[in-house]
Fold this sequence. Notes:
Number of helices: 3
Radius of gyration: 21 Å
Largest sheet: 3 strands, mixed
Number of strands: 7
Distance between the termini: 76 Å
Low-confidence stretches: 1-41
Strand content: 25-35%
Strand order of the largest sheet: 4-7-6
CATH class of the domain at 38-134: Alpha Beta
CATH topology of the domain at 38-134: Phage tail protein beta-alpha-beta fold
CATH architecture of the domain at 38-134: 3-Layer(bab) Sandwich
Amino acid sequence: xxxxxxxxxxxxxxxxxxxxxxxxxxPSSTCxxxxxxxxxxxxxxxxxxxxxxxxxxxxxxxxxxxxxxxLADVLERLARHRPGVLMFDRKALQGIRVTVMLPTDDSDxxxxxxxxxxxxxxxxxxxxxxxxxxKVPAG
Length: 139
């Protein structure tokens, strides 16, 4: 026997996409802001100035722009443009801050650019698993 639902019965809640209520982290190319700088929060309670026009231009040119940001935050943003998993230890990299413009359409190249100037090494195990860590000092 199949139960028949009442016409006035409430529907069960449906799962929502957890990203649906969050704005994108990168500026949209359709954004029409005329303000040069806006303030965002780097950490709770710490205001940080953001150059909106530069972010928009970087986004439309498929570039990731970072201005004195923690490397871990930059890697987190870069990971969104890669297939698979980009692993790194946030605590181990916490002392490294970067000002950089990286290509988002070639994340392997972006990682190579970071390894040229920073004390990090990148290990690719499969096309879907890449690890970034601090270089071990020789000796």
